[in-house]
Inverse folding.
């Protein structure tokens, strides 16, 4: 496992794409035509712990399914920080950044494909899964050891929380 080469103490917010990052890049379809995403339990735990520890978290995804919204609400993300149906992600990124008065250098974003590039070129710490598109890998400051949907979230969240002294810092780490 490699470590992120960035001053992680500066990070105040973590933003994630969903498809290809927090779920695998192959999505089965229901008989009604609804995409059925996978979830990674360790990604979920780390996001839940980060939310409990007061870290700002957000989702920016082109997906529109209610299941995605419910998943991230159940992990402790705030409704207003879950951007579904994001057709131009940089607009939602700027809304999130400006609403919290953040600088780009304080934001980590994890994306995997072309729609994520504008955000990745703007945020302070662009990250991606190992199986991201070549164009995304070219701008990422950190490429995870994990493929999308298989631990990327856990990888980056755990590294940030450890540097900030929030990983297993108290009893909040041991419950849902």
């Amino acid at each position: 496992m490699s470590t992120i080469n960035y001053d992680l103490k500066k990070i105040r917010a973590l933003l994630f794409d969903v498809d290809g990052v927090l779920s695998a890049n192959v999505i089965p379809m229901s008989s009604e035509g609804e995409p059925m995403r996978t979830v990674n339990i360790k990604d979920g735990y780390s996001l839940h712990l980060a939310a409990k520890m007061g870290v700002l978290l957000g989702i920016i995804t082109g997906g529109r399914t209610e299941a995605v919204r419910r998943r991230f609400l159940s992990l402790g993300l705030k409704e207003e920080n879950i951007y579904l149906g994001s057709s131009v992600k940089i607009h939602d990124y700027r809304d999130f950044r400006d609403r919290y008065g953040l600088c780009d250098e304080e934001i980590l974003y994890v994306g995997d494909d072309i729609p994520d590039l504008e955000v990745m070129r703007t945020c302070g710490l662009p990250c991606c899964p190992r199986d991201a598109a070549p164009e995304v890998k070219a701008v990422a400051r950190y490429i995870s050891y994990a493929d999308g949907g298989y631990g990327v979230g856990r990888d980056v969240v755990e590294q940030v929380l450890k540097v900030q002294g929030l990983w297993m810092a108290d009893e909040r780490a041991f419950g849902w």
Q: What stands out?
A: The chain has six helices and six strands. The CA atoms of residues 62 and 85 lie 4 Å apart. Helices lie at 41-52, 66-74, 89-99, 117-122, 134-139, 152-163. The longest helix spans residues 41-52.
